[in-house]
Amino acid sequence: MAPVTVGISIDVLEKRYAGSRPIIALRSLEAHIAPGEFCVVTGPSGCGKTTLLNIVAGLDKDFHGVLGFEPAGGRLPRIGYVFQNPRLLPWRTVRENVALVRQHNHDRFGLERLLGEVGLADAADLYPTRLSGGMARRVALARAFAITPDLLLLDEPFVSLDAPAADRLRGLLVRLVTSRPLTVLFVTHEVGEAVALADRVLVLSPAPGRIVAEMPIPLAREQRYDGGTLAALKAELARLAGFQPGRSSLRIPSS
Amino acid sequence: MAERVASLLVLLGAWEGAAWFAHSRLFPGPGTVLATLADETINGDLLYHLGATLARVAVAFALAMTIGSAIGIAMARSRTLDALLDSWVVLFLNLPALVLAVLLYVWLGLTEVAAIGAVTLSKLPTVVVTLREGARALDGDLAAMAKSFRLSAWRTLRHVTLPQLSPFFVIASRTGLALIWKIVLVVELLGRPDGIGYAIQVFFQLFDIKRLIAYSLAFVAVMLAIEWGILQPFERRLARWRQ
Fold first, then answer.
1. What is the rounded CA–CA span in Å between residue A119 and residue A219?
2. Over the stretch B192-224, which tens digit does the pLDDT of each residue have?
3. Is A84 part of any domain?
4. Across the interface, do B163 and A89 touch by the CB < 8 Å criterion?
5. Are A159 and A138 within one domain?
6. Theoretical Cys-Cys bridge with A165: which of A66, A161, B102, B176, CB 3.0 to 4.6 Å?
7. Exposed (0-12), middle (13-18) or buried (19+): which is A16, by Cβ within 10 Å?
8. CATH dotted code for B30-242
9. A71 vs chain B: nearest CA distance in angstroms?
10. What's the pLDDT at A4?
11. Do residue A193 and residue A180 come from a single domain?
12. Which residues neighbour A160 within 8 Å (Cβ) at sequence distance 6 or greater?
């Protein structure tokens, strides 16, 4: 099955977590992600970013609304999910963790090539308890790419890494993504990360989350190392996201 | 290892010394017992009785582990089932094996079904409780990972769920075996015409202490072999990734 680039249309009327004090995580959230787009979702913590990813991943079906993939009527997209914690199986080696999700493992060569591509060739036989945080993140990335995904979901995958390690992994992610036809939905609360990676950034409001702003970033990723442009983009996104006191028209309405 | 061997030798020496002092048919030394053990193995009924007991241990163990695991995991997954069965589990957990054996012999007659049923029932609740604990501790994040990557039910069970439960299977197996092989002897003593428990009863009535000890030692040796030869290596294999 050759990968098809999928688009996503998300229309969540309401997502509520039941309980003695029900929480409304998302409300009136509408978004369209174009095939092949690298879309970053940002917003304050607790605004429902992870909930949104879980809905797209099909892990959470308990919501009011519609989730659709394009091309419509095609097969379900193959989804690679990189969680905030790597969620590796500690009783399987690096190679076994990556191999687990593949439908058939006759393509040994492809597996080894992928492990090499993410810099894990020498660590393939280690158990996850022996890995550093950055290495474990690489395994999680490799696992997501091992299924040749049509759609890649990432939930703050580089959080809690030191800055150089996070930078290296972002570079790796960009290399992996640009060499494959796929759509990416990436969640982060870091403005700098959003600006460095995205074709387009969506800004969520505090809970119940909905999209309050969007910002296309029409720059090739190589151009984003220019300090001035990058700083300007970051400032603009920070202003949109309401992280700085700014124009009231762009502040998030409290509901 | 050297300490173990030394301490075992000291024990044998003390035993031999005490037997020499007692100088009684009722207190045979290790030499006499070992000679009896060899003789009974070759010429006597030791292997026959040992086989009968081991077969009962194996069947009761297998039954208690499979049924107990199924009930325990089901109770962890269903709150209703847990509420319904929890008091039963507590009741059976506190019911002495001897009571179970006597009651089942009375109700079902002195049959194999009653014997194995009594042993299984006395072990069952501890398996239920252990596996319920294990199933409650299952990692929801890993289950979500398996689901998002669309792993088949079998792959998820085999590679994600069971490895999390395996330490609990090991605990249940070890405590289970230790418990079962003691109860089996009581059940045999009460109402079976064969097995180590039956043999011990006969030797008790005949005051044949050297055979009594020889049969007991043979049985203990087999159980230790299972512990060292099967359970401990299995446990080490499971724990490989922790090093």
1. 28
2. 999 999 999 999 999 999 999 999 999 989 988
3. no
4. yes
5. no
6. A161
7. middle
8. 1.10.3720.10
9. 20
10. 63
11. yes
12. A133
Q: Is the pLDDT of residue A248 over 80?
A: no
Q: Are residues A95 and A169 in the same domain?
A: no
- d(CA B174, CA B130) in angstroms, rounded, equals 12
| Helices and strands (H, E) in chain A, number of each type | 7, 9
pLDDT per residue as tens digits for the range A89-109: 999 999 999 999 987 766 788
Helix or strand run (H / E) with residue A64: strand A64-70
Q: Which two tokens stand for residue B148?
A: 């998002």
Task: Show the tokens assigned to A25.
Answer: 């995580």
Chain B positions in Cβ-Cβ contact with residue A143 (cut-off 8 Å): 149
Domain that holds residue A143: 90-147
Answer whether residue A248 is part of any domain: no
User: What's the pLDDT tens digit per position in A182-221?
Assistant: 999 999 988 889 988 999 999 998 878 889 888 998 887 7
Q: What is the ipTM of this complex?
A: 0.86
Q: How many domains does chain A have?
A: 2
**pTM, rounded to two decimals:** 0.80
Structure tokens at A17: 């977590």
Give A81 to chain B, closest Cα distance, Å. 7
Q: Quick one: how far is CA B51 from the chain centroid?
A: 15
Going by pLDDT thresholds of 50, 70 and 90, the confidence category of residue A249 is: very low
User: Token pair of A15, please?
Assistant: 């997502």
Say if residue A206 is in the same domain as residue A159.
yes
For A21, residues 6+ apart whose C-beta sits below 8 A from its C-beta are none
Q: Longest C-alpha distance within chain B, in Å?
A: 74
| Domain match, A60 and A153 both | yes
d(CA B124, CA B121): 5
Strand partners, B75: none
Beta carbons of A192 and A201 less than 8 angstroms apart: no
Taking an 8 Å cut-off on Cβ atoms, the answer to whether B241 and A79 are in contact is: no
